[in-house]
Amino acid sequence: MTTIKRTYCRICEAHCGLTVEVDERTQRVGRVRPDHENPVSKGYSCVKGLGSGAMHDDEERLNFPMKRVGSTFERISWEQAIAEIGAKVRQLRKEFGPRSVGLYTGNPTYFSFQNILMSSGFIEALHSPNLFASHSVDNNNKLHVSTVMYGRSMVHPVPDLEHTEFFMCMGSNPVVSQMSIIQLPNSLKCLQDVESRGGRVVIVDPRRTETAQKVGEHISIQPQTDAYLLMAMLHVIAHEDGLDLGPAKKIAHGVDDFVGVAADWTPERAAVVTGIDASTIRELARAYRDADGGALYMSTGVNMGPFGSIAYWLVQGLNLITGNIDRRGGLLVPRGPFDSLKLAGWLGLGGFNEHRTLRGDWHQVAGCFPIAALPGEIDNDDPRRIRALFVSAGNPVHSMPEGGALARTFDKLSLLVSIDIYRNETSAHADYLLPATDMLERSDYPASHAMLQVTPHAQYTPAMVPPKYERREEWRIFSDLAVACGAKPWGKVGNLLPRINRLLARLPGDAEVTPDHVLALLMRWGGEVTLEQLKQAPGGIPLPPNEPGSFFGARVPSEDGKVQLYPKDVAADLPRLRREESRLSPRPGKLVLIGQRDRRSHNSWMHNSPHIRQPSGNRALIHPADAKALSIADGDEVEVGTEQGSIRLLARLTNEMRRGVVAVPHGWGHKGTQVKRAAALPGANVNEVIPGGHANLEPVSGMAIMMGHEVQVRRVEVRASTEAKTERQPAASEAAN
Ligand SMILES: Nc1nc2c(c(=O)[nH]1)N[C@H]1C(S)=C(S)[C@@H](COP(=O)(O)OP(=O)(O)OC[C@H]3O[C@@H](n4cnc5c(=O)[nH]c(N)nc54)[C@H](O)[C@@H]3O)O[C@H]1N2
Ligand SMILES: Nc1nc2c(c(=O)[nH]1)N[C@H]1C(S)=C(S)[C@@H](COP(=O)(O)OP(=O)(O)OC[C@H]3O[C@@H](n4cnc5c(=O)[nH]c(N)nc54)[C@H](O)[C@@H]3O)O[C@H]1N2
Ligand code: SF4
Ligand SMILES: [Mo]
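Structure tokens for the assembled complex are given below, as produced in the milestone run.
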């Protein structure tokens, strides 16, 4: 008998509702479809989520624990894997101390309640500060700025798009990505609705993106210069026109200092850097200020540039002084079903701590060090360096800038363990591979997004099917590892995470506590809904809408309940903004590199999907006029190079691009992954040319600077290009699913 079960997707932040056909006898997964009854996503989904069933059955999945033997991997039992890894870690910790263990948690971690809970619990229980996270390659600036402005990294007011009159979207391509640090399924429709209600949508991007082609007005901006645009908007609103700062002063410290930073940033000055006319900047600033509810939003295109922290500070500050935060049609701060802010306060999460890296003295953001600092923590002569590295749900060798440099440090490790659903470029170097469950094989709750929902909604999903083969739930893997590695039962006094970890690991007797028990406790405490109620409502339960006037004076998690509008460390970075002002244009003959995402890929891990027909590799998107100057024709093979190295891929000429800018999608060019479909796809890994290391970290937050590097683009000699052309397969648009 086939049952149709309801769940939600955990690949991107939209968390779309899905239905899954399950054969009750065989427990096989059939068709995965959009859930039309889901009250938030209302039948929206994309090809990645619909491919989750095929991914569950992919014959190339990692299904058993494996151990490196010479240059290959051999299957071993879970008992052997856990015991051997545990023995090694115990020995390293005894000899070199707790810092000898490190953990990198990749992007899918944040889509699994049990993984978030247990991965950080694991490293805390081992008393190591060495937790690194993928948010240092997408959102560290946001997490850091919220920490210094609001007191906790998880406060990110979300646009009230159902009521807004003016929405400016900088550095995001919602049609493809569904955005970030926000939960908004079918974001295109939400933006189109703003327009049909008579509101205005402005897309600021160096490329006329898929989004800009479908909604709003496109404003083309020179990469890396959004902070200058925002400065000029602040100048117009607060200096040229004058603004009553009284209301802002009631809720924030440092209002005058904040406004003061824009005193000499006239639109004329910003126009030179951004490439946006001064008159346009003035008009935008005033339209935003005068809207009956306006919201500025920025995402990874700006985060990944050199001024991510300054830009997010300006976005928050502008939204605040114009009275748009905590108001209808502006931006609201969701509560979630339980008080995440209070909980974070108790657990000491999302604030500052004393941990620093051995090299570079980097602080943690949201409890994690920047991933780009990891190579330096492994390869140094300090006896406390990292010697055992765990990588969970991540592929840093491929996904971080200059990942090859990280791979080269692996020789210095005594142990590398990958916990993943596939084999990837990082685990190719591992000593042990531990197979995790996929999203259909585990229960879940979108805890990390509770405070980011535009339409608040609580949905619990049970596992759709039991794990196939010997795939194991992450909570169990981390729990067993913690015990085997010698975690002490009760951890540091006052730190609850190791306790939870221990609780989950082993209760006295045979009782087993699972992440669901922790969730049930949190829900009960929160009071909005109980886990029992959620289990009875498979499509989830709508929560009260985000409430204007509920944040300031009530829930701001800073010490005195006020916002810090002039955070010293961010403001101290302003001289760099001035210094770089004249250096942002590329030198003659060079182009500026930005990125692009594709609906059919997800960072580095969707290319093996048996469900998704992939285009034949990534392409370098170049404006026809730039291409002409470089004698490049559409489909030519080009070399994109920096001082660090070069990659070769085919060119696609398109006037979507801003002149002087080249876009190369990341996540392509799979080598040594052992997964055949992905490895067979042509394409190149752009992170081979994006410089990494400490020098390329945004200095305030440790966010990797991945956009805006100057590159040389040249046509590969005719002979090679003819070969490339003969092999050429359909262009991205031709192969669309
Ligand atoms: N040049 C450039 N580089 C970029 C970006 C860019 O725009 N330009 N984008 C960056 C961004 S936004 C991010 S978030 C990072 C991502 O960086 P990472 O998170 O390090 O890498 P991913 O490629 O997302 O790899 C995720 C891994 O998790 C595995 N996985 C999937 N589901 C599960 C699961 O449920 N459990 C476990 N254990 N494993 C699972 C996948 O098989 C895959 O190997 O990359 C960044 N890299
Ligand atoms: N299909 C698909 N969806 C995804 C992902 C995926 O890989 N594939 N990844 C997921 C992840 S991990 C994340 S973090 C989110 C990211 O979601 P988004 O933040 O929306 O990321 P992108 O879609 O890459 O859009 C970034 C935009 O910034 C533009 N840009 C580049 N430089 C600049 C600049 O200097 N200024 C401005 N204003 N714009 C600039 C780029 O042209 C691009 O259009 O997407 C998620 N969703
Ligand atoms: S947009 Fe696609 S990948 Fe993202 S949650 Fe929805 S179905 Fe999943
Ligand atoms: Mo990301």
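Residues 106-108, 112, 134, 137-138, 300, 392-396, 399, 419-422, 424, 436, 438-439, 474, 595, 603-605, 666, 686-687, 690, 706 surround MGD (ligand 1) (CB under 6 Å). Residues 78-96 form the longest helix (19 residues). Further analysis is deferred to the final report.
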